[in-house]
């Protein structure tokens, strides 16, 4: 059985990308893992949407996609895209 991790909202600060999940958990990963997001403006970061039935995040203006499941992996090696 596969359990999908679905996002509810996205928040960020100068150090972390935070994603609230539908089950109320909050996961955070360093912004340094996502060069494209780290270099983006506040306006660009604020323009996101959930894709793939809530299991991914897209920033259309940046042409950047991120799997929420990849944020949970331990073996990320400083890049979760």
The largest sheet is: 3 strands, antiparallel
Low-confidence stretches: none
Order of helices and strands: EEEHHEEEH
Structural class by SSE content:
alpha+beta
Helix content: 10-25%
Span between termini:
24 Å
Q: What is the CA-based Rg, rounded?
A: 12 Å
Compute the average pLDDT: 89
Please sum up the structure shown:
This protein has 81 residues and is α+β, with helices and mostly antiparallel strands.
Overview of the molecule:
It contains 3 helices and 6 strands. With 81 residues, the protein is of the alpha+beta class. The strands form 2 sheets. Strands 1-2-3 form a 3-stranded antiparallel β-sheet. The protein has a 3-stranded antiparallel β-sheet with strand order 4-5-6. Strand 2 and strand 3 (26-30) form a beta hairpin. It is globular and about 30 Å long.
């Amino acid at each position: 059985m596969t359990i999908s991790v679905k996002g509810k909202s996205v928040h960020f600060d100068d150090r972390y990308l935070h994603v609230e999940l539908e089950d109320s958990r909050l996961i955070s990963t360093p912004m340094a893992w996502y060069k494209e997001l780290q270099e983006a403006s506040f306006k660009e970061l604020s323009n996101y949407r959930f894709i793939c039935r809530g299991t991914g995040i897209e920033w259309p203006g940046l042409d950047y996609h991120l799997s929420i499941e990849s944020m949970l992996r331990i073996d990320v090696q400083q890049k979760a895209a």
